[in-house]
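Message: I would value a second opinion on how I read folds in token form. Give me a protein, with the fold worked out from its sequence. Write it directly below this note and I will take it from there.
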Amino acid sequence: MPRKAPARARREFSPALAAGISRLERSRNYLGPGAVRTALRLWREFVADPYRRLRGDSEGCGVWECCGDPWQAREMLEGVLLALPRRAAQELRRHIDDEW
């Protein structure tokens, strides 16, 4: 019999949250397709780093999706939280705060 996945396993978005995010990414000119997932990934990587290191101006490739600023990603996620419906925002907040 297979074992259950650990409680902190990576959870995917519910259909309601995925639809809300997709709607926001299409309707806001500052968001592109996949921008929320990218921002969430950047924030999770920053939080998972025990030293919480930020890259300097000379470090990284300069592409936001790869080496973006986690604090800018967090600010964008806060804006998305404010724009989402209450239940979807609560679920996204759980995804954001999961690692913190």
Notes: The first helix runs from residue 15 to 27. The helical segments are 15-27, 35-48, 64-67, 70-83, 86-97.
